[in-house]
Structures are given as structure tokens and as C-alpha cells.
Write a structure and sequence with these properties.
The protein is α/β, with parallel strands linked by helices and about 160 residues long. It is about 40% helix and about 20% strand.
């Protein structure tokens, strides 16, 4: 029997964390293992410092792997660094290198002008990869007074 492996590409956004939750459910149903990948983006210019440190990137991956493992899904994590224009290529090449069956990533639900000026990592991954690409949109927060506090919007009081 062939082992199923899903590559989960994450970032520190709410969409990236929603992709973790989605992947837990998807991997549980499909009995897949998860390889968590975070590509630490390096600016195109060498004069500009990276947006995050390696310690912050490690904490992001370790936290995601721990959440997935707590849900009973086998997972491991990795961090790569790539210049801004090469992030999508890094995701696709990593999925190929590890023999993944699919790629999961989050979506920011960009609208209007923001959609035109977004970085389009998702679209680049979809164009470059022969694998299925699963896009998990961020959770929608219902406007109900009975919504559990532990699921409240980030930053909401």
C-alpha cells in the first residue's frame, strides 16, 4: 500500500492557519501524512532584511506540526529560504522531491484592487505543479452572539 503524503505550505497569516485546520480534517479523512513547509521569504534586494527571523519561522512550523500531531495525524516540518519571486517554485519542487500526492495552502480571499496587486503565490503554484492543489480559504466568522469565544476573530476583544 502506498503512503499518502500531503504537502502543507504555510505562512504566518490567518489563511495559513486556516489551511492547517483544513489539512487536519483532510488528512484524517484520507489517512495521509503531512509535510509542513514554510518558505521564509527573502527580499529581492540584499540590502533589505528578511521579514521574519529563522527563530520565528521555526516557531511557526513547530506550532503547526504540533497541532497536526495532537489531532492524531503524522506530520513533520521543514523550512526553506527563497527570494520573493521563487517561493512558488520552492513549494512545487519540495512537493516533487518528497513524492507528495497533493499540495495544500491557504487563500487570503483578496478582492478588487487587492486581488490585482496580490503576490499570487497560489496561482503560481497551481500553474507550476502537476499535482492537485487544494486551496483552503480562511474561516468565515459568523455574526452570531452564540459563536464560541475560542473561535473568535484574531484581535477581537
Amino acid at each position: 500500500m502506498t503512503q499518502k503524503l500531503l504537502l502543507l505550505a504555510i505562512d504566518g497569516s490567518v489563511a495559513g492557519q486556516a489551511a492547517v485546520d483544513f489539512t487536519i480534517g483532510f488528512a484524517t479523512m484520507s489517512e495521509a501524512q503531512v509535510a509542513v513547509l514554510h518558505v521564509r521569504e527573502l527580499p529581492a534586494s540584499l540590502r533589505v532584511p528578511p521579514l521574519e527571523t529563522t527563530v520565528e519561522a521555526s516557531a511557526l512550523v513547530e506550532g503547526s506540526v504540533a497541532r497536526i500531531n495532537r489531532a492524531g495525524v503524522p506530520a513533520d516540518g521543514m523550512i526553506y529560504s527563497a527570494r520573493e519571486p521563487n517561493v512558488a517554485r520552492c513549494i512545487v519542487e519540495t512537493a516533487d522531491e518528497y513524492g507528495c500526492n497533493a499540495i495544500a495552502l491557504g487563500s487570503l480571499r483578496l478582492r478588487g484592487l487587492h486581488r490585482l496587486t496580490g503576490r499570487n503565490i497560489r496561482e503560481q503554484v497551481m500553474r507550476r505543479s502537476a499535482l492537485p492543489v487544494i486551496v483552503a480559504p480562511p474561516a468565515l466568522y459568523p455574526a452570531t452572539p452564540n459563536w464560541p469565544a475560542e473561535f473568535s476573530r484574531p484581535g477581537a476583544a
